[in-house]
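Suppose a colleague, Dr. K., hands you the sequence of a protein chain of 111 amino acids and asks what its three-dimensional shape might be. Before reaching for any lab equipment, you can write down a predicted structure in token form. Begin with the sequence itself:
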Amino acid sequence: MTHTDVIAGATALSDTIGTTTHRRTFQHAVNDFVGVLVSVLDYPAAEFSIDEIGLLRRLSEGVIERIELRLNTPGDSTNVQVVLVEAVYEIRRRLELIDEWRRHFLGIPLA
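The predicted structure, expressed as tokens, is then:
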């Protein structure tokens, strides 16, 4: 798997999250999206361009927005809602880790 596969996977999962209404498909896509973000740190930081990192951030924010919209729609059990809220926190945490990882390995000073 290359870093471009990571970008393609994140894009496809974001699309699925944005279009599905089925709870199980939504949950699996969210879980897989988090997994894609986790995998970013398995690559050298220099493999991802600033534009690709920006795309991952935008996709992540879109996924978070879709999760929040779903949470405001009745129908999911409390357990499902808890899992989705935890996913939001994990996505945000992964974005912070990716930022720290890039800064560390590319020698980017804090702004």
